[in-house]
Structure formats: C-alpha cells, structure tokens
Amino acid sequence: MTRTDALYFALTTFTTVGYGDITARSQTGRVLAMLQMTGGLLLVGVAARVLTDAIQAGLRQQHHDRPPG
Question: What is the pTM of this model?
C-alpha cells in the first residue's frame, strides 16, 4: 500500500462514505475521490454554519422585537 492508498482508506472511513460496489482503483482516481469527499465535508460544515447563524440571528431579532413587559 502506498501513502495515497492509506489516506484514501482513512478518509473513506472518516467521511463515512463507505466501501461500496464502485471504488477508485488508480492513484489518480483515489486522489479525485478524496478531493470530492473533502469537498463534501466542507460543504456540510459551511451549510451547518450558515443554518446556525440564521437561527441565532432570528432568535436575536425575535428577542429584540418583543415588547417589554
């Protein structure tokens, strides 16, 4: 196994993509698959951050608009 293979299998496990029927066999294919997996993680993280910020802003606005009393 090369370092690329080891990183591919570690990243596949970490991202919970799993080992399905279709897998990358070449080094180039594995690198491209790793880039896609990493991009997916980043996309999910950014989406979670945007959603969290929107919820917090909505709660702040709701608290600000509430009449005293």
Answer: 0.73
